[in-house]
Specification:
Length: 130
């Protein structure tokens, strides 16, 4: 089944429905909530970076291995990866369409999952196994 191409007249008419309203709303809310939580986590991240400035490796492992530091950093990594995926989605939607867009979104999603999973695994290893 072929989709009707979206024309300028369709976009200008407020009664016309195009796109998925629920998906767009979810994308909008996710982008705003992850952005806001990134701002909240920024203070914590700055504290950790300043605490680790000039420290040697055993001190860094001790700080990041603390559950009160490592687990929030793992949560931050997941939130940043979600925010990164959504930001790249906006860019991909603007410049690519059809099958190429789907392929690039798949690669974008896999890359973000890989980044988040690697970082979280490293932090969990430090927290639970030193």
């Amino acid at each position: 089944m072929r989709e009707t191409p979206i024309t300028r007249d369709m976009i200008a008419n407020p009664k016309t429905k195009y796109g998925r309203a629920k998906a767009s709303t979810r994308h909008f809310l996710t982008q705003r909530l992850t952005g806001a939580s990134n701002i909240v986590f920024l203070g914590f991240l700055l504290f950790v970076v300043l605490r680790l400035a000039g420290q040697d490796r055993p001190d860094m492992v001790a700080v990041l291995g603390n559950a009160l530091v490592g687990l929030p950093l793992a949560a931050l990594l997941v939130i940043v990866a979600i925010h990164m995926r959504n930001g790249m989605r906006d860019t991909l939607e603007d410049y690519f369409h059809g099958e190429l867009y789907r392929l690039l979104m798949l690669l974008n999603t896999l890359f973000c999952i890989l980044i988040a999973a690697t970082g979280v695994a490293a932090l969990l290893k430090l927290v639970f196994w030193g």
